[in-house]
Amino acid sequence: MVAKLPEEEHPKVAFGRAARDQSGVSSTFKFSRRATGEKDVSFKVLYRELAWKCRHEIVGMVTEVGSKVETFKVGDRGGVGCMVGSCRFCDNCTNDLESYCQQMILTYATKCYDGTITYGGYSDIMVADEHFVVCIPDNLPLDATAPLLCAGITVYSPLKYYGLDKPGFHIGIVGLGGLGHMAVKFAKAMGAKVTVISTSPNKKQEAIERLGADSFLVV
């Protein structure tokens, strides 16, 4: 049996860019997305963060919803982070820890339920199960929201999970890169005292004057 080409796997034609070899150089890529299922949300991709391999942190405008979708309608703003599926029945899934599910389906380069591969969000359209699509409020700019769907949740989640999301804590943030600067902003917004720990003395001004850290420690 001859394998189908990426653009023949599903009914929705999609256009994007992809790296085809180890050089990492991207080029135009024609592929396809599945039809909008009864619990699916389809949206036009408007922004995506140029993150690791350019495949996730995707936001846009909803263009179609399945017959059993409850939280989205056409015209809403939505986004997808690093994952688009899980078993939904294991202990992790039933405790809102889907990212630990043994059958987790990443947004990119992962085999989906039907055996095809997820192609990420560096494209013009996206289709995902409603459970893994995030509602984006109107007061958040879409371009600034995209990084929150991976880098943002990576640092927000432990602050929330371990009860550090309230005043009175002194939190150390190691590094001031893509995740670190968000951790500083979240921790300060939660009322914590923040010390940035870094090997780069030249980041002190940014940490304190721009991001609001209370102190800066060079190691």
From TrEMBL:
Boundaries of every Alcohol dehydrogenase-like C-terminal domain copy: 178-216
Cofactor(s) listed: Zn(2+)
Protein name as catalogued: Uncharacterized protein
Protein family (similarity comment): Belongs to the zinc-containing alcohol dehydrogenase family.
Keywords: Metal-binding, Oxidoreductase, Zinc
One example GO MF annotation: oxidoreductase activity, acting on the CH-OH group of donors, NAD or NADP as acceptor
Keyword Metal-binding: yes
A Pfam family hit: ADH_zinc_N
Protein origin, superkingdom: Eukaryota
Gene3D superfamilies according to UniProt: Medium-chain alcohol dehydrogenases, catalytic domain, NAD(P)-binding Rossmann-like Domain
Chain ranges of the Alcohol dehydrogenase-like N-terminal domain: 49-138
InterPro entries (UniProt xref): ADH-like_C, ADH-like_N, CAD-like, GroES-like_sf, NAD(P)-bd_dom_sf
